[in-house]
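Data availability (excerpt). The following record was deposited with the supplementary files.
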Amino acid sequence: MPQFTSYDGTRLACRTTGEGEPLVCLPGGPMRHADYLGDLGGLAAHRTLTVLHPRGTGDSARPADPATYRCDRQVADVEALRVHLGLERMDLLAHSAGGNLALLYAAAHPERVSSLVLVTPGLRAVGITVSDEEWDEATAVFRGQPWYAGTRAALDALGPESSLADAYAAAAPLAYGRWDDAARAHDAAGRFNWEAVAAFYADGAFRPEATRAALAAVTAPVLVVAGEYDGGPTPARAAEAAALLPHAELVVQRGAGHFPWVDDPGALRRPIAAFLDPEVRSLTVDGVRIAYRAWGDATAPPVVLVHGRGGSAAEWTPIARELAADRRVYAVDLAGHGLSDHTGPYGFDVYRDQLRGFLTGLGLAGADVVAHSMGGVAAYLLASAEPELIGRLVVEDAPVLLPPRTPFAPVERPDGELPLDWAVVTATDAQKNDPDPGWYEGLAAVKAPTLVVAGGENSHIPQERVALLVDRIPDSRLVTIETGHLIHQERPDEFVAALREFGI
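Predicted structure:
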């Protein structure tokens, strides 16, 4: 494990895992062995996680002077790690009590922070605390759980002679969105330097007013992640902290407690990965965070690319780069896909409304839209409902929705992690079995010049259903590229040529 020497000669360690640009991670506890962070819900697939072992924990040495466990004294350890890594500026993530350290570091070295992610952060450094009444109110959400009465009894039994370890153990079930086997195992694996915990918060560690003033000058983007059920910080207190930073945004993870990657790994990973990726931006549509990518001159005529079921904005990258020569190109992750929230409900009509919100939210009324499969259905539903909203429309291998001769049977969810929320499949299959008759009838209202690109006999989509679009949409034409359903991926050159000939 890599080691380096801090300002006072203490040898410190850091664990490195993952791939991509480095993300320096500060664990909480305080003074907890950093292994409890794991890979932060799979974030290591997007970034190289460089996880500091705080002095006196894990593979880092105990300092000669225990007073250096104090939070403000550890700012120099973070700076020593930056120097050791050879980074001019660094992306920094901190959890829980580590949030105090990250805020102090950002206040002292704002020029060294390129971005900051605070996951259910401790906020004493800026004078934000949660009262006992607030904590009780927040954790009362668990009142109906079978373990709640025992947990409350254990907390009520704590007294002046109780240790910090006793208090942490008693409160543990309230720190997770679900007190299930995964939460129990995660809690049981926690290791603390209890001597250092008290020293971390020793008198003099924090000067909230000075820190607040210094943070007002931080120009780096900041993401604050709160757990919906977390008692410290509550989402309201996390929002208060976000308001202190000029370029901060708040994400509240639904159903999560203090350790959101344990409650729902993907729900934590997606907003952080989107935030850290310079090519990804986000827009909130009807309360759902929608991730998207953009290419080309911002003043060029816009075109929006929409994926199919199980796809994502990233799959459009080769097409987008070609079009970006003279167009402003946007590719969207529909809800339940990619880096957008995996939050239902789902359905073709839901995605129609989501695409409407995306276009209007970014001021893209009149933009051309190129949409594949499920996204194509959403796009032509929008073009029929609001004919003036879309300029030119390209529908790639998407059928008209009519009752099938043989209903789609329920499909069992495959094992393992999937590229989409499986509820998308069940919702859209149900609609394919019983589509709204108005969807087919409404195609006659489409005013946008429309190009229908069919995949030919190798596509699993009935090609006669694709061709029916041309029969129903007034100003439309059909082009077939014999390859199958994934035309833009398998025959990108021919697909782009068809778009260019169509005027996109």
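Summary of structural features: DSSP finds 19 helices and 16 strands in the chain.
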